[in-house]
Structures are given as C-alpha cells and as structure tokens.
Specification:
Shape of chain B: elongated
Order of helices and strands of chain A: HHHHHHHHHEEEEEEHHHHHHEE
Structural class of chain B: mainly alpha
Largest interface: A-B, 6 and 8 residues
Strand content of chain B: under 5%
Number of helices of chain A: 15
Shape of chain A: globular
Largest sheet of chain A: 4 strands, antiparallel
Strand order of the largest sheet of chain A: 2-1-5-6
Structural class of chain A: alpha+beta
Mean pLDDT of chain A: 93
Number of strands of chain B: 0
Low-confidence stretches of chain B: none
Distance between the termini of chain A: 27 Å
Radius of gyration of chain B: 20 Å
Strand content of chain A: 5-15%
Low-confidence stretches of chain A: none
Oligomer: heterodimer
Order of helices and strands of chain B: HHHH
Radius of gyration of chain A: 20 Å
Number of strands of chain A: 8
Mean pLDDT of chain B: 85
C-alpha cells in the first residue's frame, strides 16, 4: 500500500475507532513511517539498525544475497510488509528449501496478524501505527512473499484488468514495461514492473515486483498466474480487499483501545463504516494512482480538523538531542518495530524455518522481556 | 471447465512455449556449432567439395560457401519457424498445427542422426566431445517430445471437456 492508505486512510480508521484527532495523527504517522524507516534513516539518527522496517531501493541494490543477507531481507519484509499466512503450510512433493519460502506467502487473516494486533495492546500509540501498517499490507500484498524467491514471487506475463461495464465483467490486457522512472499510465493500462531475473535469490524477486504497483492501487481488480499456485489463476480484487482492510483496522483499533474484549480473524467493523460506505467505495474505486487528497478530505470531514501532511523530519531532532531515547516519539516507534520484528522472527524460527535467521526470547521467569534476533 | 482442468491446460501450454524457445535455441546452436568448427579448425570447408576440371577452384569454393549458408540458413529458419509457431500456439494466438508436422520430421531426423552417430563410431574411442554431443542430441529430442506430448494431452483434455475444434 501507499501513503494514501497507510497515512490518510489509517487516520480515518483511527478516528472512527474512537481515537482523538491528535492520537489518530500519531497512529497514521507511525503507520506511514514503517515504509520509510530504512537503515539510511536510522544511521542518520544514530539509532539501532536492527529496527529497520524497510529497505530503500539503493539499499536493496547493495544488499547481499548470501544466507546472511537473505535473512536480513526476510526479517524486514516478512515482519512488516508481507506477514506470512501459514508457517506450517503443507504441499506435497516439494523440497524443504521450497517449503521454507512457500510458508512465507502473505495473506490476510493469519495467526500472525492476530498476534501483531495483540502485541500492540497496552503499548504506546506508536505500536498501534506499526500494527496497522502490517495489517493493511496483508490485504494489499496477498499472494507474495517477503523473501527473494523466483519460485514464489514470479508471475506469468498475462495480466488482465477486470472492468465492470454496464454490469458485465470484461477483461482488458495490462501491458508492462520495465522503466522504473516512468509513471504508470492508468488510461492506457500501461504499468511498470520489475524485469525477469532467473536467479532464485535475486532481490528483484522480492515481494510483488513482478506485478509492479498493481497491488498498491485500490481501484485495480486483476487476474494473473503466480508461480507458486501450480498454474491456477488468481483474481485480486483490490476494491473489496481495501474495504475489508479499512473495516478490519477499525475493529483492531477498537480492540487495542479496550472497546472490544477479544480480537480474532475475519472480524470487520462494518457498522462503523456503514454511514460512509458510499464515500469510501468512491475513493477506493476511483481510477487514480494515489488517493491521498480524497482520503485526506474524508478524514478532515470526519474530525473537522486539518490533517498535517507527513513530514519525516518532525521528530528527528527530539530523538537526536534527547538522552533518554526511549521516551521520545521515534524511540517508542523503534521499540515497537523491534518488538514486531522480534515476534515475527521468533514465530518463523520456531516453525523450523531459518530464512529469517535465529531468534531467542529473554524472560525473567515471570514475563517475556524481549525477543532478540539475528 | 474446472479450475484444475484449466490449470492443467495452462501447464501444458507453458511446456509447449518453453520447449518452443528451446527449439529456437537449438537451431541457433546448430549454426554456431558449424561456424565454431570451421574457425577452430576441427572442420575444413575444403572437405565439402570435389574439384571439377573445367570449373575454376574459386568458383567452386564460392558455390560451396553459398550452399552451406543456404543449408544452415534453412536449418535455422526451420527451427525458428517451429519454435515461434509453438509459442504462438501456446499463447492461443494461432491454431495452426503445421509446425507439428515439421516437428515430427525434425524428430525423425534427430533420431536417425543420433543413431548414425552412435552406429558409425567405436564406443571405446569416444572422447568427451562425443559424449556431450549425444547428451545434447538427447536433450533436443526430449524437447521435441515434450511439445508433442503436451499437445496430445491438451487435445485429450479438450476432447474430454467437449471443446475439441
């Protein structure tokens, strides 16, 4: 997902969940920060690099793809952007190496997603933002894995957009080009995707690169064949998925606030969005590359207050100049990121999958202190 | 048609497409192999002609070169035609099956050629090059049979579903 959903839509969901305007701004700020908290950003702050929640394109170009490098990449992407659905999935006739990657495929409503939301309960508001980013991405990034793998993340060449005209569904071919500097052309169905790389562990085979930005466009409903599904075709209905993501975020945040006692899979707060369903659907289904203005306008109508634009700089000075880092805004975000990464890495490790590296929990006998990874 | 059946058809079409690319690659390899042999000196172009009294040697040589270029050009064209036709068939851009006839002829030629290669040589005198040549030929034959078998399976499934045209 992009800034339009991670920042502005998350603000709207937080406000509808009952948070104040200021709290909603903090939550959506942290949700968007997950997409920007790279090693480069942390180096500038002199913050722990293990808290990285993303990797920039330039960092990816220099990333090692030996086992250590792959583990580092997988830890970041699987923890924050491609949360694994079933770490114990079974598939006949496949090698261990293949199954380790197959089990990292992301889909919504997983056990790990429930753990992510439960982890944020009772924590500072920054943890809520991190959890909402992870939750939202499980919907957008479905059917891809947060580890470099040709065998899992490759797709066929035949992508078709499904358009409904006068109640009838029609398929329009999607054309891909490999020019990363060119903007996607919605009117002509021309999009950018990553070029085919036959190296299994190439970073170009990480995530949804082969599908370009299609998973991040809320209006897009399309069909394609992923490499992992034995030639079965997938229909990715982003308008429906994004609506569910929005409703699920409200439900999750109500649970985190304590308004709901338990949180489970497949739970959506459809009641909260009912008065605004038409408007939300209109924003989601509008054919535009980024819907920030529409979500922002919706959020400002909800709260009656102006939503500040995302600014990466605003909390940096506080973190750099403060001696007690853990009391600063970014300090709390870093704690939340480390906790999320530790939890996911631990779960992957205990499933006997070493693609995310090793993990150890530290407790004082009564309670879990933290989970470390490496 | 069920999703499993559609997936099976897609799988066999994908086999045809990949093998079609393989046929093109082998065609290019056949031509390259000849030129490499000439350049490396393992094959001599002078062995391809017999001098005739009233025809000047340079004329004969030019004719031989033209003939060889046409011959290997034809081989390349045949492989490329079969390969691209297989790819177009696999991507449902063409329903023509003429390429299968040429493919069968190529298969027969490959089997005959391999049998002749094995038959004329003494197995005890084979070197690495001979063994590799045989493996390459076997790989090419497996590609050809993959196309034929995949086509047969697609037709069988379509017939079973009542979609044979």
């Amino acid at each position: 997902m992009q800034e339009d959903f991670h920042y502005y839509a998350t603000y709207c969901a937080a406000y509808l969940a009952g948070y104040t305007h200021e709290e909603s701004e903090d939550i959506c700020y942290c949700a968007q920060l997950v997409d920007l908290c790279s090693g480069t950003f942390l180096t500038k702050l002199n913050a722990p690099l293990s808290a990285a929640t993303t990797q920039l394109q330039l960092e990816m170009m220099d990333a090692r793809t030996d086992i250590i490098g792959l583990q580092n990449i997988t830890r970041i992407w699987a923890s924050f952007h491609f949360l694994p659905y079933d770490l114990y999935a079974q598939k006949r006739g496949r090698t261990r190496i293949y199954m380790n990657k197959y089990r990292l495929i992301c889909m919504p409503n997983s056990d790990l997603m429930v753990k992510t939301v439960e982890l944020a309960k009772g924590k500072p508001i920054q943890a809520v933002g991190v959890a909402m980013h992870v939750l939202a991405d499980t919907w957008a990034h479905s059917y891809f894995a947060g580890t470099p793998s040709l065998a899992i993340n490759n797709t066929n060449w035949n992508f078709r957009e499904v358009i409904t005209i006068e109640g009838e569904e029609r398929e329009v071919p999607i054309k891909f080009r490999h020019n990363p500097s060119a903007k996607d052309d919605v009117a002509n169905n021309l999009y950018t995707s990553s070029i085919f790389q036959n190296n299994e562990n190439s970073v170009m085979n990480l995530g949804h690169g082969r599908a370009g930005h299609l998973p991040d466009y809320s209006f897009m409903k399309y069909r394609y064949i992923p490499a992992w599904d034995d030639y079965k075709e997938i229909t990715k209905d982003n308008p429906s998925d994004y609506l569910k993501a929005f409703a699920q975020m409200i439900y999750a945040m109500k649970y985190i606030r304590g308004d709901i006692s338990t949180f489970g899979k497949d739970k959506y707060d459809t009641e909260a969005i009912e008065p605004y369903k038409d408007r939300i659907n209109a924003i989601i289904r509008k054919r535009q590359l980024i819907a920030s203005e529409d979500w922002k306008s919706f959020g400002e109508d909800l709260s009656g207050k102006k939503i500040r634009d995302f600014d990466l700089e605003i909390y940096q000075k506080e973190y750099i100049t403060n001696y007690k880092k853990e009391d600063t805004f970014l300090g709390k975000f870093i704690e939340a990121a480390l906790a999320q990464k530790g939890m996911v890495t631990y779960e992957i490790y205990t499933s006997k999958n070493y693609l995310a590296g090793f993990s150890k929990t530290i407790s004082n006998g009564n309670s879990l202190l933290k989970t470390i990874f490496g | 048609m069920s999703e499993e059946t559609l997936a099976l058809i897609r799988k066999y079409n994908n086999n045809i497409e990949m093998s079609g690319l393989g046929v093109i690659a082998f065609g290019i390899w056949e031509v390259l192999k000849f030129f490499i042999k000439i350049v490396a000196g393992t094959d001599d172009i002078n062995g391809y002609y017999v001098l005739v009294d009233d025809v000047p040697t340079p004329v004969v040589k030019v004719l031989v070169v033209i003939f060889l270029m046409c011959f290997y050009g034809g081989i390349l064209f045949l492989h490329v035609y079969i390969g691209f036709s297989a790819i177009r068939f696999a991507r449902a851009r063409s329903n023509k099956k003429t390429f299968l006839i040429w493919l069968c002829l190529l298969a027969i030629y490959s089997i005959w050629s391999l049998a002749a290669y094995i038959g004329t040589g003494n197995i005890r005198e084979w070197d690495d090059g001979d063994v590799i040549t045989i493996f390459v030929e076997l790989s090419f034959m497996s590609i050809i049979f993959d196309i034929i078998y995949s086509y047969y399976r697609i037709k069988k499934i379509q017939k079973k579903e009542g979609l044979d045209s």
